[in-house]
Amino acid sequence: MDLRCFAPAGAFAALPEFGALIRLWLQRRGPAEVPDWSDVDFADFRGWHAFLLLGRFDGHEPDPTLRMAGEGYIEMTKQNPRGWRISELVPRLYDIQFREHFRRIRDDGAIGLTSGRVPLKGRSHVSLRILELPFRDGGSGVRRTLHALLKGTA
What we know:
By secondary structure, the chain is an alpha+beta fold. The protein is built from 5 helices and 6 strands.
């Protein structure tokens, strides 16, 4: 998997295929570094619902628990990760790559991009690009993640 993080100012230009979502994120953050989850409405993501995952940072470890997965993600991967942490979904890759990636998203408010082939048995022929947007949740730190998927563009 190829993992990258972007400062908000560079993400829009670097990831045009996610332009509408990044533009929304930038608009909703206002003067804050990262928008609050209450600044968006689920209807704002019209057209993306099937390809979204919602995550939440619950503990010390930068390991979001996935709270919801759209049917497009479930269809592509042949699994519903609701209630799973990223470390449970891809344990070897979490230790090698994802821990630091999600630390930057959580601690620095970076916008993330994961691209490559799905690291799941029987699904390695599926290529994905996953945008990871950080959100606050009523406080000052990042507590939520919104993951948006595109298929076949890795």
